[in-house]
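User: structure tokens for Secreted protein, please.
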Amino acid sequence: MLRPILFAMLMTTPGLAAAQSAPAADPPQRIRSVTLTPGQACPKGSDDEIVVCSTLDQPYRIPKGLRDTGPIAAKNQSWINRAATADQVSRVAGGLPDTCSPIGSSGGTGCALQANQQWAAEQRAKRSGSPNAP
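Assistant: Done. Predicted tokens:
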């Protein structure tokens, strides 16, 4: 008596499982990335595409107030920058050419170069509106 009931239940179980599994929707065929200007609305995508919008006013993930724009500390610089700094310091200390140093031969040839570089730095500071500009 129990055997025919169990047999009937087992036979109908796969049918129930098949009836519950509906065909899945097709995945999107296209993903479109759109960069917007401030005030522009994100366009609507069609049924088979996803639209990802980003704005130009914040191209970075770090907020503008938290970004550090000052000089990079020596411990955070690459070894190539550290080597270049050490090279420049030893050039000045040794009085090599283009160093604007009273020590050594041709040490004075770099004074005009150094004055021009300082002037260019001052002009960049004025254009950028830096508070340290003279």
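User: Anything notable?

Assistant: The longest strand covers residues 30-36.
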